[in-house]
Amino acid sequence: MENRRRRRKSVSRVTQISQAIKGRDLATLKDLARTGAGLETTRLRRRAWPLLLNFRSLVDPGTTSLHPDEGQVDLDVPRTGLPKSREIRHTEHAVQRRQEQLRSTVVSVLRMYPWLSYYQGFHELTMPFLCVFGSEKPTQEAMRMVALFFVRDAMSPGLEHVMQQLQLLYVLLKAIAPNVHNLLEELQVPPFFAISWVLTWFAHDVDDFASICRIYDFLIVSPPMQVVYVAAALVKHSEREVLAMERDFAMVHTGLTKLPQQTKEWDSVLEDSWYLKSEYPETKLQQMGCMLAQKSAVNTFAATWTRLDPARPLPFTALVATKANHPLAEATPTVKNATST
Asked: Looking at the DSSP assignment, which residues form a beta bridge with residue 84?
């Protein structure tokens, strides 16, 4: 009986998602992506994600010139595996084909916006999108939007701006999990354990394709800083386990890095992160810790994302002023000892 109820509930949700896609009801679609089990299936995501990511809202011609970071891309792509899922083929040929598509996708985005800098992890962030869409063209469009509006700070010449965001993770932990924060402060554990979480939206740390897709559903309908709130909610969910770790720098750091792989309650973590953001919105959080650059993706998102309209595409420079350099090229971040905030 219980299984029948669950099946009916699941079918009902699938119907809701399909109807929202068909009617282009973005408000309902965003709510479904953010809550519960998310968008449920790969087939639905293939139809929903382009709507949620504002495909075809930008008109930027790009260039055919080589990007200086393509050499690093060539080193990283062959080491990239596929997520674990019965719906993904893992034959040698299938993996090689996906890697070829992955390289093409990443290089396409870099050449389109030469002022973006590739970071190690962007290829891992890209792979789940490629596995959902199954081809390069929609994946390129998805990664263009993700690169410009969500992870743009990480694609500046250095990772200093990302480290600022991780400093705000510790500000959150001090507020919601003071015992964990005190432990990290005592052992002087920096926030590096979470850097792959933020840079890859947990794709580096979570093998299960369904879990990765659920996280992506949530993050593409959230502001760019949301991944930091998810990181804080994950640590809070695992507070008992963290406090039970041996009080040793290496043991705690390693234990923290393993939290995403051990977590089975992503729906609860994501929901808690949303309430956490409501309690500590980005502006308040920066006032509590450190101010991010004015042109940070975190601080420009609200004003730029709402202007996107596939019916009236714009060049990115109409949204965020930039010429040949990254918008953060002249911004100097202030990164303090994160555990002492």
From this structure: 208
**Strand stretches in the chain, DSSP E:** none
Q: Which residues make Cβ contacts (< 8 Å) with residue 76, sequence separation at least 6? A: 120, 123
d(CA 170, CA 178): 10
pTM value is 0.92
* Amino acid residing at 123: H
Q: Could you give the CA distance from residue 17 to residue 20 in angstroms, rounded to a whole number?
A: 5
CB 170 within 8 A of CB 184: yes
Q: Is 208 helix (H, G, I), strand (E, B) or coil?
A: strand
Structure confidence by residue, pLDDT tens digits, 31-60: 999 999 999 999 999 999 999 999 999 998
pLDDT tens, 250-268? 999 999 999 999 998 999 9
Over 142-181, what HEC string results?
HHHHHHHHCCHHHHCCCCHHHHHHHHHHHHHHHHHCHHHH
- The whole-number pLDDT of residue 2 equals 45
Q: Measure Cα distances from 154 to 121, 198, 286, 333 in Å.
A: 10, 9, 18, 13
**Band of pLDDT at residue 62, cut at 50, 70 and 90:** confident
Q: Could you count the other beta carbons within 10 Å of the beta carbon of residue 296?
A: 24
User: Is residue 341 predicted with pLDDT exceeding 60?
Assistant: no
- The whole-angstrom distance between residue 85's C-alpha and the CA centroid of its chain comes to 20
Coil, helix or strand at residue 58: strand
